[in-house]
# Entry
Amino acid sequence: MTTKKKRTPQTVNDSWVLIAAESAWKTHDGDPTFIKLRNPATGAASQYFFSSGDECVFEVKAFSEDFRSWFIGQTVQRDGRIMYVTPIDPVFLLLPYLQRGGAEGNFQQLQQLVVDEDYPGCSRLLNCTQALSSVHHVADEKVMGDRKFHRYNQEKTMEWLKKKVQNTVSALKKSDLSVGEGVKSSTFVRVKQETDATEEDYLRYAHGLISEYISEELSKVLHKLLQLPEISSPKEAEPPSKKRKLSDKAVEAGEDYTKFNSADFARKPPKKMTAAQKSLAKVDKSGMKTMSAFFSPKVKQERN
# Structure
């Protein structure tokens, strides 16, 4: 991994600390670029990172805590977030456009389907080799001469998503991550051994992870396809969630992936205060000096 500090010519303050793999910064065919695209799960604006030559697409995440900053050289960077980029399957970003075009039921070229007046940068997806080579997993293809035409296929899409969940389950089992009720939401500590997790626990957690990249409608269909029963009290089994923000710069990573498995699934706005801030607010401050008192000028005592 390498750390990069992004800075644009407009202003010194428009910069941040970014962690990315070396492969994302290779410049054999153009410079890597940050592009604002439509988030496939929420429809809101999210930031993505295209490697040189548009070969790979990464999502931009942010780890943020209040009242943090960076000392960079002789300057102070007020934006104390740590940005990091992780690979994303570009087919997730193509899905909303394919679904929209699939309503007409006609075969169309991708150039006709992937069009967005609000996010014109979506056309960059058509240069991504991975996207072009994988779009057949979610759409029917028809070749006429040297041109390809596509039509959204719901059945193919659900099978593709199901395989994504199964692959995620395999990865989770190899990791040391608690996916069931072995996590206390209040303290985020494991109270059971990982071996206590059931197959259903893994499926639910994997389904929640994949649901971060698809619409609520597809998430519900996938839930039924996986034959997962509804959770009567989802809050009891949920791991703790960090604040998840949607902004022009980045989307914070969320830890609460089982929230997508309940019938009353809804994306809620982040809480205003952290647990640490709430605890601090309850402290009895009577008799304590204010911070400014430590910096007040000392009063000279008169000599007799």
